[in-house]
Amino acid sequence: MNLSTKKMLITILIAISLILISGCAEINTISVPASQQNTNMLPQTSSIAYNAGDIDANPHQYARAEISGKVVDTMNSGGYTYIQLDDGTGTVWAAIPQTTVDLGAEGTITGSIMKNFPSSTLDRTFDAIIFSDGIQAAAIDNPTNADILESPASYYQVVVSGTVNQTMNTSDYTYLELDDGTGIIWAAITQTDIVIGENVTVSGGTQSEFESKTLNKTFEVLVMGTLVTDSDETVSETMSDEDFAAYHNF
User: Fold this and answer.
1) pLDDT for position 207
2) Considering Cα of 186, then 187, then 188, then 191, what sign does the dihedral take?
3) Rounded to whole angstroms, what are the CA distances from 82 to 50, 124, 125, 172?
4) Mean pLDDT of the chain
5) According to DSSP H, which parts of the chain are helical?
6) Is the same domain home to 91 and 111?
7) Strands (DSSP E) found in the chain
8) What is the CATH number of the domain that holds 167?
9) Tens digit of pLDDT for each residue in 35-93?
10) What does pTM read for this prediction?
């Protein structure tokens, strides 16, 4: 093979190499059209949405929400209460364990956001919905017994006061019927000697349709907590989670 032939072969090989490199580069730079991208695979952030309008505009940007607003729609299905909140910037749906929520009630929903959530019982898909433990009612300085009885699901931690009309004891707890002049509500505290006619204050959490097996009685609303003095110092220990769970076995 003479020199000119070798030079020609080298030139051809170089040309072929350049063509191959150019082709690979072109393949590697091919982009997927935006219309074909799966938006569900986009990176999710852990930021919190504080406005319903923000969730509506870009639900994939938020993982959690804390929205305060007015209840404009509600429905029960599949063990959940679905609530539509309007906060002035837009509306958003939330799902909480089934309870009674009044239209027009104001409160705050805090929880995780689910995108494109299908509800088989409602036969609809929510673009975005907040799953929460409940709705926290707008603050009332001193809710009365009547306030709590009217909407028990709106109050989780309350302070109730009233005159003791009657008491009932189980092995570990004392149940008190309290009358504050607006309504009568029952409370349960660690067993304590209480005098009928005494005015007492109890701080604790609310339970609706609470059934006491030991007393064979169902309380429409029950405040489970601790007895407090006028100086707001508790005189009985706060119930443990085990004690709370044990209520249903009394």
Assistant:
1) 82
2) negative
3) 19, 12, 13, 37
4) 77
5) 3-28, 52-57, 145-150, 241-246
6) yes
7) 48-49, 64-77, 80-86, 91-97, 106-119, 124-137, 157-169, 173-179, 184-190, 199-212, 217-228
8) 2.40.50.140
9) 334 333 333 445 888 999 999 888 888 999 999 999 999 999 988 999 999 999 999 99
10) 0.46
User: Is the pLDDT reported for residue 107 higher than 60?
Assistant: yes
Do 48 and 62 contact (CB within 8 A), yes or no? yes
In a domain, 213, yes or no: yes
Amino acid at 136: Q
Q: Output the pLDDT for position 34.
A: 42
User: Of the ranges 117-121, 128-132, 236-240, which one carries the lowest mean pLDDT score?
Assistant: 236-240
**Do the Cβ atoms of 56 and 92 come closer than 8 Å?**
yes
CB atoms within 10 A of CB 79: 9
pLDDT in tens, 94-104: 999 888 788 88
DSSP class of residue 239 equals P
On whether residue 27 sits in a domain, the answer given is: no
Residues 6, 1: Cα–Cα separation, whole Å: 7
CA 220/CA 185 separation, integer angstroms: 9
Domain that holds residue 71: 43-137
Neighbours of 203 (CB within 10 A): 19
User: Alpha-carbon distance 221 to 200, whole Å?
Assistant: 18
CB of 67 closer than 8 Å to CB of 49: yes
User: Same domain for 129 and 152?
Assistant: no
